[in-house]
Design goal:
With about 325 residues, the chain is α/β, with parallel strands linked by helices. The protein has three domains: about 5-50, Orthogonal Bundle (434 Repressor (Amino-terminal Domain)), CATH 1.10.260.40; about 65-160 and about 300-320, Rossmann fold, CATH 3.40.50; about 165-295, Response regulator (Rossmann fold, 3-Layer(aba) Sandwich), CATH 3.40.50. It is about 40% helix and about 15% strand. The chain has helices at about 5-15, 20-25, 35-45, 50-60, 75-90, 105-115, 165-175, 195-210, 225-235, 250-265, 300-310; strands at about 65-70, 95-100, 120-125, 145, 160, 180-185, 215, 245-250, 275, 295, 320, 325. It has a six-stranded parallel β-sheet with strand order 2-1-3-4-5-11, with helices on both faces. Strands 7-6-8-9 form a four-stranded parallel β-sheet, sandwiched between helices. Strands 10-12 form a two-stranded antiparallel ribbon. Helix 2 crosses helix 3 (about 35-45) and helix 5 (about 75-90) crosses helix 11 (about 300-310). The protein starts with 6 loop residues before the first helix and ends in a 5-residue tail after the last strand. It comes from Neorhizobium galegae bv. orientalis str. HAMBI 540. Keywords: DNA-binding, Transcription, Transcription regulation. GO terms for molecular function: DNA-binding transcription factor activity; transcription cis-regulatory region binding. This is Transcriptional regulator, LacI family.
């Protein structure tokens, strides 16, 4: 193997000290511009890259951010993950992706991230319990952030789409179209970081209609479980009480509900029943679904969480306005 180029090699080539080389690659360090350019030119000629591990020992910063995810079946995750990793990398931050599942829970994930000395931890759409963060083993670790879900935990800021505003816009749109028998298809119930969409949806219709809002929960945010939840809803509801509008907590559930309504019930969408989702995932625009949905402002949300991680703005809850996307299913 070829010998690794060191800071000493660059220093000899540039005619400067090793510490001048180190300062040249340290953001904010005091160094004359002429010396910095000489070091950078020598480094380029020698194909030198600074040792980030060694730098982290000196600065106590690893420039790594852990991202914890627990529902990879949700099609909304990948587009947002692309934006998130792109913006982190543009600031010189590397991501450590941790898959939370039945074999590796939140506490294990947080401990694992802590052992790697990451600079921040992002809980991306994960359903955690507050008591998990009270575990003595994870106290005093990297700052925590919640992305795309609510959080009422002190010192753990949540960066979200404005749920009450989003559901009000959707419900007012549905009401203006003449829908009067709503139902809500949600994901699995969570203990503390629920999206709040079902709650806001029910509150609107309870204030504007005398009819109760039907509801059903899916086992997870997948189209397969959306199909099964829709089957349960329609099989357990008398035909005369079937809804004329089915609001789904996200697009994946809506895809499954549409498949069930079309393939099994043989109903027309939206003539017999309207269906809507949330997130505006890429498949929502496909002619196969053409789904009415609500788009979260992912770029703005990610930019806010990045600014907090970098200390450019205070660590506090932020909610951003999204956009209703009207298509043929509602």
């Amino acid at each position: 193997m070829a010998k690794r180029v060191t800071a000493e090699d660059v220093a000899r080539s540039a005619g400067v000290s090793k510490w001048t080389v180190i300062r040249a690659f340290t953001p904010g360090a005091s160094i004359a511009e002429k010396s910095r350019l000489r070091v950078l030119e020598a480094a380029e000629n020698l194909n030198y890259r600074p040792n980030l591990l060694a730098r982290s020992l000196a600065t106590n910063l690893t420039h790594q951010v852990a991202i914890l995810i627990d529902d990879f079946k949700n099609p909304h995750k990948l587009p947002v993950l692309e934006i998130l990793t792109w913006q982190l990398q543009s600031e010189g931050l590397l991501t450590v992706l941790i898959n939370i599942n039945e074999h590796f829970d939140h506490v294990q994930a947080l401990l694992d991230a802590g052992q790697r000395q990451v600079d921040a931890i992002i809980l991306f759409g994960t359903a955690f319990r507050p008591e998990m963060l009270e575990d003595d083993r994870i106290q005093g670790g990297a700052p925590l952030y919640v992305l795309a879900r609510d959080s009422q935990i002190p010192n753990v800021p949540a960066i979200t789409c404005d749920t009450p505003l989003a559901m009000r816009e959707l419900c007012e749109y549905f009401s203006s179209k003449g829908y009067r028998r709503p139902a809500f298809l949600s994901g699995a119930k969570t203990l503390s970081t629920a999206l709040g969409r079902r709650r806001a949806f029910n509150a609107f219709w309870e204030a504007h209609s005398s009819k109760p809002v039907l509801g059903v929960s899916a086992a997870s945010y997948s189209s397969g479980h959306g199909f099964e939840a829709a089957r349960i809803l329609f099989q357990e509801t008398p035909r005369e009480q079937w809804p004329d509008l089915l609001m789904c907590e996200n697009d994946a559930l809506a895809f499954g509900a549409i498949d069930y309504v079309r393939s099994t019930l043989k109903l027309r969408i939206p003539d017999d029943i309207a269906i809507a989702g949330f997130d505006n995932t890429p498949l929502a625009a496909s002619p196969a679904y053409d789904l009415t949905t609500y788009e979260q402002p992912a770029i703005e949300m990610v930019a806010a969480i990045l600014s907090m991680i970098l200390g450019r703005e205070p660590r506090e809850n932020r909610a951003f306005k999204g956009k209703l996307v009207s298509r043929s299913t509602a």
